[in-house]
Amino acid sequence: MKATIYDVAKEAGVSIATVSLVINGKGKISEERREEIRQIIMRMGYKPSMIASALTGKKTYALGLLVPDISNPFFAEIARAVEDEGQRHGYSVFICSTDNKDEKVEHYAALLQQKNVDGVIIGTGLKELSVLKPLLQGGVPVALLAREFPSVVVPSVVVDDYAGGAAAAEHLISLGHRHLAVLAEQDSISSSRERVRGFRHTAEAAGITIDPAFVLSSGIKEGKNKAQELLQMDDRPTAIFCCNDMLAIGALRAAKEMGLRIPQDCSIVGFDDTVLASVTDPPLTTIAQPIEQMGQTAVQLLIRQIGQPGEQPERIVLTPSLSIRQSSMALRLYPEQSIS
Fold first, then answer.
1. For residues 89 and 302, is the Cβ–Cβ distance under 8 A?
2. What is the spatial distance between Cα 126 and Cα 142, in angstroms, rounded to a whole number?
3. How far is residue 6's CA from residue 27's CA, in Å, rounded to a whole number?
4. How many angstroms separate the CA atoms of 251 and 249, rounded?
5. Long-range contacts of range 251-258, CB-CB < 8 Å, 24 or more positions apart?
6. How far is the CA of 151 from the CAs of 132, 182, 225, 324, in angstroms?
7. What is the torsional sign of CA 296, 301, 303, 304?
8. Of 205, 165, 204, whose CA–CA distance to 182 is shortest?
């Protein structure tokens, strides 16, 4: 027999009204007592009926999460953080991979509306904001995660991508590198644009001009080929900044296949600090995003909006940090080379 709200109330020694308040995140209940009741709900496997809730216009305790690609370790770790935090608050999470394609975003947005989810977290790139209109006009609470759209006024959680790009440039410049290249994501992805901007501006402030020919855009699958283009140039860069770890791993593979040594022949810096960054060969120097905190905060903001729809949307900016490993090193100069 499935546990009912009556079973939970009896086990917790409270009324069913109190259990309902905990599930809905309402009521003047101490956080300690609230957590005790949540643990009983999870232990007994109690799940409010989504269908019954939807038919009565009540909460379904379901959230949607749109990410570009769940096979990307960064978004896999984001999804896990969102799912864990959602479950802690009594919510299930539907995870949808969009491949950064507007038509997929539109499809999943409609599907999530049909399922009467209580809110949606958008963590994917968009070319046309109009695909979000059905959600926004339908009154579905929305929060943005690792993405920003200035014309969409909703809660958001982002990392200071500009500062991350700047930190990558500062690290490489401190090692003596002056001939720099960038492997970026598609220009439609705001986070990538900010990372490149921070990297460029910091280099320029140090008197280094990055040739536009040494800034290439790439999808994850094409990362290795794009890195080869950079490494095959006659005046190849001594260091490459990659706007995510997967692009950096592609660059490591490209260098290895070309017989180049990393970091002796070229330093590589990534961005994300996913679980893969520490197990590559060599381990990857990268800009670390607080992934777990990002997912948790996005869920908290969305649940707050669900409970208080008129509240002013909050924008949370988290700070990235530099994780130095073995894929970057000080530039070794040959007689014919000099730092200008």
1. no
2. 15
3. 18
4. 5
5. 251/183, 251/223, 251/224, 251/227, 252/280, 252/281, 252/282, 252/284, 252/327, 253/224, 253/227, 254/224, 254/225, 254/227, 254/228, 255/227, 255/231, 257/224, 257/228, 258/228, 258/231, 258/232
6. 11, 29, 35, 37
7. positive
8. 165
Per-residue pLDDT of the chain in tens (340 residues, 90 and over written 9) = 678 888 899 999 998 888 878 876 777 889 899 899 989 988 888 876 654 554 445 678 899 999 999 989 999 999 999 999 999 888 999 999 998 889 999 999 989 988 889 999 999 888 888 888 888 888 899 999 998 888 888 999 999 999 999 999 999 999 999 999 999 998 878 899 999 999 999 999 999 999 999 999 998 889 999 999 999 998 999 999 999 999 999 999 999 999 999 999 999 999 999 999 999 999 999 999 999 999 999 999 999 999 888 788 999 999 999 999 999 999 875 444 444 4
Greatest alpha-carbon span in the chain? 81
Rounded Cα distance, 321 and 160, in Å: 10
